[in-house]
Amino acid sequence: MENQTSTPDSGEELIKQELITREELAQARETEARSGVPWYKSLIQNRKIGFETLENVLRYEFHSRSAHSAHQTLGETLLRRKCLSKKQLDQALAEQKRSGRLLGSILLEKRFVSSREIGMALAEQYGAEYADVDQSPSDAEALEAVPESMAVKNGMLPLHLNGDRLVVLVTTSQARERAREAGVLLGKRIHSVMTACDDLEGEIRARYRELAADEPERVIAGAEKPPLVKQAESGAASEDAALQITDVQRDKLARFAEVAKQAEGAPIVRMVATILEGAVNAGATDIHLDPQEPETRVRYRIDGVLHDVMSLPRTQHNAVVSRIKILADMDITETRHPQDGHFSDTLGGKTLDIRVATLPTFLGERAVLRLLDQSSVLSGIKDLGMEKEDEEKILRLVRQPYGMVLVTGPTGSGKTTTLYAALNQKDVMTESIVTLEDPVEYQLPGINQVQVDTDLGLTFASTLRASLRQDIDVLLVGEIRDQETAHIAIRAAMTGHLVFSTLHTNDALEALGTLRNMGIPPYLISSALTAVIGQRLIRKICPECRKPFKPTVALLESLGLPKKTAKLFRGNGCPACHYTGNLGRTGIFEVFEVTSDIRKVILAEADIRESADLSAFKSMAERCRQKILAGIAAPEEYFRVIRD
Fold it and tell me: 212: number of CA atoms within 13 Å, CB side?
């Protein structure tokens, strides 16, 4: 690696600061001449200096020598470096003005400068270091830290990995920016070094091929293979068993054996680990592996929106999915039917329960992984982002000894988190609490959780009926899906139990109509129901790139905001938020409390929106507008989430 001026001066700077001796520098340079290992790398490997120290010295030296040229154009920089004459530059600039082509391409075409000279000039412009590709070997650790597809897509060649600092080679300023974004997903601090290379992608692929050729596969200890796969691998099946296997089945078993072997190989194990770690580092809630042509698409759902993060060669798809199925204790030989499984892991300091669901498609098995952070269930009502008056209502409602509280919203709107937050307000030492869930997403200390399993006859209705004989104070029913479950839950609320459950409706007021459509008489609804909470999740503006702007009258009218509103906010995009302008999510809630007046309207079977006094009711649309005015959310979230 070299500075734009020269690396010898960097060595002198290290000596001047008494970080190394002249003899140590001389030995490092001899090693470089003999083996091609860069002198600075020898010093780091021999623990003469640390990587951070070297980087700081190079940065200080560069800025002290070339700060005056920070705003120079490429042509001016090349001219100052005496890489070409003024006449040659003028000739190239005239050609650029005529054709609109890039100056660098013109200079190379006319052979006024070399690729290396342009690379070094660009490095100087961007305040980066320069290194030649052929003088910059890659550590295996660095290559292993970055999936090949990600390296190719972002135009970065991994060189060295030191802790969480990853050094990569790039050829353009755009690639430097993409490398920085990739670092966020990888959980690495990226240090980009400029280079000149006509085919960096080819060099990247070549180094990954060398890595694969040099590295023996390691089988993960403890990974149990399905019996048929072990049988196919060993060839030790009994004669009777062999007679029962057709040639087609034998070929199929052989293919599964090969996939199983590949799935347990080190490259695939690392690939899956990288995908999982990247999702955690990016704050993703879901991972999608979509088989497409010609590559497999890997996407993360971040703050409710899917983002493409990398692609995998189709040749690796089956092995990657099989590796995930092995982790989740699923059958890798079954590819024609959907499967579900789960496994736990600790990633990024978080204990995660990872739910896996596969779906056979025309191009192969699609896999979706949901990442459930166990620490998130420790939140209470006050952590949900409710407005103060709604928060106080909910806290009062969950302290009641009986009644039914429903939470409504689409899939992924945070209903489970709200229900768990409500349960966290209860005293597990003095109250008997049972949950009925499909599936049990989080483990709650001190609470009895029942996994609903329709294949075993454990439906919501049957387990709910059995639970009522268990001397229960508080009951959580994961979802009211049918009339029978609704009837039992409502009767439980009327007989001294506090019942929490969910419904799939667009808002809180629609829950009343949904219960009536299930055949629940109005007198039961009015007697049992105490409140309905409607909710959505909206994205928060990234605090790092949050900027004000003056809204148009048309925008304010569509949002239902006063025309005198002077400014709103949105994020411009930055590395912290993956250039989306949003970082994290918060809830918007509407709390519909069933008062005595509301009960009369329900009994009369009147339209709740027309007949009830809803002056104190604040809808989700109103709450969303409040978040927008407060600068918490961008206006676009209103149109993405709210439907008036």
Answer: 14
Record the tokens describing residue 377, joined without a space. 């269930």
User: Which pLDDT belongs to residue 38?
Assistant: 64
What are the Cα distances from residue 571, in Å, to 309, 360, 579?
21, 39, 9
- Cβ-Cβ contacts under 8 Å for 573 (sequence gap 6 or more): 542, 545, 579, 580, 581
Burial class (CB in 10 A: 0-12, 13-18, 19+), 192: buried
Question: Under a CB-based contact definition with an 8 Å cutoff, are residues 405 and 531 in contact?
Answer: yes
379-641 maps to which CATH number?
A: 3.40.50.300
628: how many CB neighbours lie within 10 A of its CB?
24
Give the Cα separation of 514 and 520 in Å (integer). Answer: 9
Determine contact, residues 622/589, Cβ cutoff 8 Å. no
What does the radius of gyration of the chain's CA atoms come to, in whole angstroms? 31
Distance CA 500, CA 431 (A): 15
> Cα dist. 173→65, 249, 407 in Å?
21, 53, 49
Helix boundaries (H) for 110-243? 115-125, 140-145, 148-154, 173-186, 200-214, 227-234, 239-243
Is residue 58 over pLDDT 70? no
Q: What tokens appear for 524 in the block? A: 């039961």
Q: How many Cβ atoms from other residues are within 10 Å of residue 206's Cβ?
A: 12
Question: Of 464, 390, 483, 379, nearest to 422 (Cα)?
Answer: 379
Q: Which of helix, strand or coil describes residue 609?
A: helix
Q: What CA–CA distance (Å, rounded) separates 109 from 29?
A: 35
Which residues, 6 or more positions from 145, have their beta carbon under 8 angstroms from its beta carbon? 158, 161, 166, 186, 188, 274
* Dihedral, 316, 161, 279, 155 alpha carbons, nearest 10: -60
Do 474 and 431 contact (CB within 8 A), yes or no? yes
| N-term to C-term CA, the chain | 59
Contact in structure between 344 and 351 (CB atoms under 8 Å): yes
For the chain, helix, strand, coil in percent to 5 are 45, 20, 30
The answer to whether 227-373 and 379-641 have equal CATH topology is: no
Euclidean distance between CA atoms 268 and 30, whole angstroms:
39
Cα–Cα–Cα angle for 371, 377, 383, nearest 5°?
Answer: 115
Return the axis-axis angle of helices 266-282 and 314-327, rounded to nearest 10°: 80
Only one residue has tokens 């998130």, namely 376
pLDDT by residue (tens digit) across 118-169? Answer: 888 888 877 788 888 888 899 888 998 888 888 888 899 999 998 888 999 9
At 337, list the tokens. Answer: 């039917």
- Domain limits of the chain? 7-210, 227-373, 379-641
Would you tell me how many other CB atoms lie within 10 Å of the CB of residue 156? 28
Q: How confident is the model at residue 357 (pLDDT cuts 50, 70, 90)?
A: very high
Question: Mean pLDDT: which of 128-132, 361-365, 574-578 is highest?
Answer: 361-365
Write the class of the CATH domain 227-373. Answer: alpha beta
